Amino acid sequence: MPTFCAPDGTRLAYRTIGDGDPLLCIPGGPADARYLGDLGGLSRHRRLILLDPRGTGRSAVPEDTASYRCDRLVEDVEALRAHLGLARPDLLGHSAGANVAMGYAARYPRSIGKLALIGPSTRAVGIEIAGATRLELARLRKDEPWFPAAFAALEAVSAGTGSDWDAVTPFFCGRWDDAAREHHAAGLPVNREAVAHFGADGAFAPEATRAALAAFGAPVLLLTGEFDLNSPPRSTAELAALFPDATLSVQGGAGHYPWVDDAGRFAAAVSAFLG
User: Fold this and answer.
1) pTM of the predicted model, to two decimals?
2) Sheet harboring 115-118: ordered strands across?
3) Which pLDDT tens digit goes with each residue over 142-192?
């Protein structure tokens, strides 16, 4: 697996899948990029460059744990772009990785072609998702056999009386079967320090980021699943409204991993946007 040097000297890894114009991909978590796979066959249209964030996958653990902060991770993306000698590559961020991607767009707007935010977290711009919003969305799954136990756990989490996120997991997938269980487990973060420091004090500057994104002229795709509790369509639409040139796409029947729920539909939508 190829590596490059981050600004602080940490050795970071990435892998490349497919052919065509490059697409830099930032996973969520923070977790290594393996769970992205080939993004439902998107590699048939683009050369996917999948970054393992510092302290995950094959990337080295940094000496300074403060460097796990979201705003600091932006510089790792810029170092990768420079290492590859790319002028204005397209950029894709999933889940928490969308915060890094938005931070990059705010700081380096002239270094991006197009921006795709998939199941985006909205912490970078200060959009909060109310528990009532998640519960309303979850009720759409009331006919699923796993619904009673999962919904009870979600109610407890929303009320602050429970923390059994494992029981809530089915809500994050468009279908809950063995393949979904395996995929979800593969994407779980294993570096707890990386998770703990990702959103530490100073990681986000919502007002400044909003102002920068309001001036971001490149096309932006915001794609989320119909059932995505992490990135409900309502909050994703609110995020889309911050960009001058945004396209909102809600993939029916999908959860937080739309390329797993319907690979063909996902790859077609993203490749059509990227052109």
Assistant:
1) 0.96
2) 3-5, 11-17, 47-52, 22-26, 90-94, 115-118, 220-225, 246-251
3) 999 999 999 999 999 998 888 888 899 999 999 999 999 999 888 889 999
